[in-house]
Write a structure and sequence with these properties.
This protein is α+β, with helices and mostly antiparallel strands. The strands form three sheets. Strands 11-10-9-8-12 form a five-stranded antiparallel sheet, with no helix packed on it. The chain has a four-stranded antiparallel sheet with strand order 2-5-1-6. Strand 8 and strand 9 form a beta hairpin.
């Protein structure tokens, strides 16, 4: 019976490890024992150069989830795969995780899509940083970030207008960090 295991791999090589295990299982005739191999990812929204961009990022860098019918051949297949450091478990011995836990890790992207208002937005500035307004009535003004509202994707910037500091509320993509 196949169970879920977590494989520890070199960070950045998770996809190559997945492909190498699958191709080696096919070559050795063990494809029926290697049911599924996944790299857990999540989709986040980043504000870059004034635009919102959807980015897929690894949910657990350095780890690969695999549904395996564990035996000595499968253990050695995974362990001898390049860029694999071992299994997650006591003393590097494979320890299965529950189906519910695996589903929670793998469904993180579906859960993120279902809860779109809670979608994570990443900006390259923080409170106290100097920013430049890119568009709108205050375009080309410089200011200082006072507040960040991730729920509404808004930033409050203190802009100097006629010598007085005036708070202005803008969208995340309307400002960028001053160089």
């Amino acid at each position: 019976m196949a169970r879920w295991y977590i494989i520890h791999a070199y960070s950045g090589f998770e996809g190559k490890v997945r492909d190498a295990i699958l191709s080696e299982a096919n070559r050795m005739g063990l494809e029926q024992l290697v049911e599924q191999i996944e790299v857990p990812t999540e989709t986040i929204t980043e504000a870059r150069r004034g635009k919102k961009i959807q980015v897929e990022r690894k949910f657990m860098p350095g780890y690969v989830l695999a549904k395996l019918a564990m035996n000595d051949d499968v253990y050695h297949l995974v362990k001898n795969t390049p860029k694999v450091t071992g299994f997650l478990g006591p003393n590097g011995k494979p320890q299965a995780i529950s189906d519910a836990e695996a589903a929670r890790m793998l469904n993180s992207k579906e859960e993120a899509a279902a809860s779109a208002p809670r979608q994570q937005v990443k900006v390259d500035y923080e409170i106290g940083d100097s920013v430049k307004v890119l568009d709108g009535p205050f375009a080309s003004f410089n200011g200082v970030v006072e507040e960040l509202d991730f729920d509404k994707s808004k930033v409050k910037v203190s802009v100097s207008i006629f010598g007085r500091a005036t708070p202005v509320e803008l969208d995340f993509e309307q400002v960028e960090r001053s160089k």
